[in-house]
Amino acid sequence: MSKSTGPQPAVQWKYLEPATRTNYKGLFVKGTRIRADTLYAWTVDGSEPMTPEQVAEGYGLPLEVVKEAIAYCESNPPEIADDHRREETRMRATGMLDPGYAGRPRILTAQEIANLR
């Protein structure tokens, strides 16, 4: 008997939700402007990644919220990859990725911004 390869049911997140009034498509901690991938990044990036407990304490969040954000990010949702791609595209367009970047991004015209999409 073969396994079904049809669409899988969407995961229902208890502490995460899409945000309004933002271009980011990845999920945020409910009732905050904290992106789930920001919490996750603290646990994997840098020379000394933090434990989920340290991240929870640093953001003043329950540990369960941080663990859910980690689980969401580890599921590799395509919206996070899209968010990161859009951020990199904008950073490249404004010169933020140029060698010698001095902390002043180039201002983009409305047409340049429209072309980034």
Entry keywords:
two-stranded antiparallel ribbon, single chain, 117 residues, 44% helix, mainly alpha, 2 strands
Description of the molecule:
The structure is a single chain. Helix content is 44%, strand content 3%. It is mainly alpha-helical and 117 residues long. It folds into two domains: 11-75; 76-117, no CATH class. A two-stranded antiparallel ribbon has the order 1-2. The longest helix is centred in the last third of the chain and has 16 residues, at 78-93. The protein is globular, with a radius of gyration of 17 Å. It starts with 15 loop residues before the first strand and ends with a helix.
Q: How do the strands line up in the largest sheet?
A: 1-2
Give average pLDDT, whole number. Answer: 90
**Estimated helix fraction:** 40-55%
Helix-strand category: mainly alpha
The SSE order reads EEHHHHH
Report the sheet-strand fraction: under 5%
The count of β-strands is 2
Specify the biggest β-sheet. Answer: 2 strands, antiparallel
| Low-pLDDT regions | none
Quaternary state reads single chain
Tell me the Rg in angstroms: 17 Å
Shape: globular
- Gap between N and C termini, in Å? 44 Å
Number of helical elements: 5
| Count of the separate structural domains | 2
Topology, pairings included?
Blueprint: E1 16-17, E2 28-29, H1 36-44, H2 52-59, H3 63-74, H4 78-93, H5 110-116
Helix pairs in contact: 1-3, 2-3
Summary, kept brief:
It contains 5 helices and 2 strands. The chain is mostly helical and 117 residues long. It folds into 2 domains: 11-75; 76-117, no CATH class.
